[in-house]
Amino acid sequence: MKKYWLHNSLFDTIFLLSPPFVVLLALFAFQSKISYLETHYSFWIWLFFIVCIDVAHVYATLFKTYFNPNERNRLKKELTYIPLLCFCISFFLYSLGYQLFWSVLAYIAVFHFIRQQYGFLRLYLRKETNNIPFIEHLTIYNATIFPMCYWFFGPKRHFDWFVENEFIQIESPKWLAVLTILYWGILISYLFYIFYSSIKFKTINVPKLILVLGTYSSWYMGIVYFNNDFAFTALNVVSHGIPYIGLIFINQRKEEHLKWIPKINHWKGIAFYLGLLLILAFAEELIWELSVWQEHFNWDFLDIPSKWQFFLVPLLMVPQFTHYVLDGIIWKKT
Question: Model pTM?
Answer without folding.
Answer: 0.93
